[in-house]
Amino acid sequence: MHKLCMIGTGYVGLVSGVCFADLGNKVICVDQDKNKIDKLRKGISPIYEPALDEILKKNIRDNRIEFTSDLKAAVKKSDIIFLCVGTPNKKNSLDVNLSFIFKAVKEVIKNIDSKKIIVTKSTVPVGTGDQIEKLIKRKKAYVISNPEFLREGEAIRDFRYPDRIVIGSNDKYPGSVMRSLYQPLISKGAKFYLTNRRGAELIKYAANAFLATKISFINEIANLCEKVGVNVEDISLGIGSDNRIGSRFLRAGPAYGGSCFPKDTKGLVSTGKKYKTDLSIVNTVIKSNNLRRKLLLDRIKKISGNIKGKTIAFLGVTFKPNTDDMRDSNSLTMIPFLSKSGAHVKYYDPTGEKNEFKKVKNIKYANSIREVCKNADLIILHTEWDEFKSIDFSSLKAKKNFKVFDLRNLFDFNEMKKKKIKYSSIGRPSIN
Ligand code: NAD
């Protein structure tokens, strides 16, 4: 049993804290947001993540996890301190804003009274661990890196069955402590890689930049498919079955979004600049992704015809299904654009109404699929939640001659053709 402190109870800190507790450890989760702590103490998760609530409640009941805003007491009672705070980009910049990290580190350092292990689980640029170490006087702590690879929406599964666990440590001892912490997962088959601290920091950025590259690649191929009458899904299958390429992250769709890829690709380019290394591929991926956002707006204009006065319905607005996370979601560019262009926008999302759209004009939240599609001229399938898979468009009370734009290729092309629905999707022919 290890005594752990998780600083930051967002998607990463909360999920890993709860899952570490579930493995039998004693976990104290700290957050500066008192509302989150109040909710968590009552066993209510402030984020939507499948299965999280039950594991949370179980571990509170069994006294393995507690929640506090008292960082001092939490640090004192713990042996391993995980930094799980946000690392967004600085405003209008490629650089990473490390202010949350250093604010937390300074608090931790003030309260260290015995030798601890400080672990950066947050995604931080290579060399951040070195900077943290410099702040720690008289070597009161080991500073190591343990980048997180979980995916929102599948976070519990990803914690329990990770492809790999990466630890970056310049000392032997903390590496062995981390191995024992993760032993229950290693015993079930997870690979455990030990490297130096800088190596682990860079692995995380390289992984995300590579995945973002794969998505942008297939998105550009999809653009070509639309012009030459080829179905992009055939291409994904045809190339993905080559083991050297692999089939995952080859689904064409909107621009990549979410809390990681957009900021981490930029963060990596910023690190390249700092070390005078041209990361031209990643740079191009960022450009390609920005272009894609514009390109999809143009496609919506083309599909809809005149936007002014049209009723446009969004099915889902989060950046992916099974999460409530809106960060860098495509809907954040699409919806304000359509509203400004004079459309009446309606949206439905299984995780509820979004604060992000509170100030947008001409927008309404609908409580159900049926309500959102009522009287719609254009229905945009934005996020591929399971509940949208079986929609029977012909039974919905949309306008006569309504159109569907499927950003995720969720619906069967031939079915839509059979039902004579005016249907556009990504990298496939349109049905007019
Ligand atoms: P988040 O914004 O959901 O959560 C961060 C939390 O930290 C917030 O609750 C905030 O109140 C708290 N916080 C900030 N400063 C604090 C301080 N000084 N003391 C106490 N609490 C503080 O962030 P997230 O999505 O969980 O991401 C955290 C890190 O993990 C980021 O570096 C991110 O890149 C990385 N990461 C995220 C994911 C993901 O899917 N979200 C996956 C892998 C890695």
What does this structure look like?
- The chain has three domains: 3-195, NAD(P)-binding Rossmann-like Domain (Rossmann fold), CATH 3.40.50.720; 205-279, N-(1-d-carboxylethyl)-l-norvaline Dehydrogenase, domain 2; 287-424, NAD(P)-binding Rossmann-like Domain (Rossmann fold), CATH 3.40.50.
- Helices cover 41% and strands 14% of the residues.
- The chain contains 15 helices and 14 strands.
- Strand 1, helix 1 and strand 2 form a beta-alpha-beta unit.
- Helix 9 (197-228) crosses helix 11 (261-274) and helix 11 (261-274) packs antiparallel against helix 12 (280-304).
- 43% of the residues are buried.
- The protein binds nicotinamide-adenine-dinucleotide (NAD).
- Residues 7-13, 30-33, 36, 84-87, 100, 103-104, 122-123, 148, 150, 152, 259-260 line the site of nicotinamide-adenine-dinucleotide (NAD).
Short description:
The protein contains 15 helices and 14 strands.
